[in-house]
Amino acid sequence: MASTKNNGKQSTRDLILYTLKTANQAKVDDLAEAVNVSPVTVRHHLNSLQASGLIEMESVRLKVGRPYYVYSLSEKGHELFPRKYVQLTNRLLEELKDYLPPDALGNVFDGIAKKIIAEHEGKFEHLPFDERLAYLTTVLREEGFIVEWERDEDEYTLVEYSCPYYSVGDQHIEICGLDKDLMISILQTPVEQQTCILHGDETCQFTFSPEINKTA
Fold first, then answer.
1. What digits encode the pLDDT tens for the residues 94-144?
2. Would the pLDDT of 61 be above 60?
3. What is the DSSP letter of 102?
4. Cα dihedral value 201, 174, 157, 81, nearest 10
5. Which residues lie below 8 Å from residue 81, measured CB to CB, with a gap of 6+?
6. Whether 68 and 109 share a structural domain
7. What confidence score (pLDDT) does residue 142 get?
8. CATH number reported for the structural domain that contains residue 40 in this entry
């Protein structure tokens, strides 16, 4: 399997996904060679991708010798990659811009975020903050994001390793912010964006520091 060259904008996870997209299926050693990392690193990412529902694993049994595993994209994983409808979407948005006021398209995407939140109304508002954060990551993954978060004392960091809106957002930046609107609505706290894939960064990174309840 040919090596996949990193252009500096793709993470190892993205390269693994891209390799599986182009190769249809691959073993761990094949992916390690293609992405130019160790098999141990590949297995770490595959476990995470499988947990997110983006890849599938299949056991291949031979007449002689031990079975081995091959990995491929799930239906959800395939949805991360642009298809022909992206071109149509971009053309439709260009037409809307010609007919609508300058801020109208941004308002459309704001409305989409509100409708997504409405679908989850009553399911997260009562939850403690960490559980709301877990709920948020589930919502974002359903929308096609590869996302993880971590906590350092009172500050949280949420990282999106891919953007399902990239092919549209590259031409219509108004869509960039829909995910942040979801974060603010579910977490009910201010969110600061530190990096953005659409601006050339490797990931979209967000930080937030919810108010910690202090006991007397």
1. 888 888 887 888 888 889 999 999 999 999 999 999 999 999 999 998 888
2. yes
3. T
4. -60
5. 21
6. no
7. 86
8. 1.10.10.10
Query: For residue 42, what are the CA distances in angstroms to 13, 32, 36, 127, 214?
Result: 8, 6, 10, 35, 42
Q: Same domain for 157 and 115?
A: yes
Residue recorded with tokens 């991360």: 80
Q: Is residue 213 part of a domain?
A: no
Provide the residue range defining the domain that includes 71.
12-78
Residue 99 CB neighbours (<10 A): 7
In this prediction, residue 10 carries a pLDDT of 66
Q: How many residues does the chain have?
A: 216
Give the Cα separation of 189 and 186 in Å (integer): 8
Residue 9, pLDDT score? 52
- Whether the CA torsion 75, 142, 107, 183 is positive or negative: it is negative
Q: Cα–Cα distance between 165 and 141 in angstroms, integer?
A: 13
Domain count, the chain: 2
Read off the pLDDT of each residue in 156-168 and give the average, rounded to a whole number.
Answer: 86
List the CATH number of the domain containing 117: 3.30.1380
99 shares a domain with 58: no
Question: By the 8 A CB rule, do 186 and 38 touch?
Answer: no
H and E: helices and strands count for the chain: 9, 6
Rounded to whole angstroms, the Cα distance separating 207 from 184 reads 11
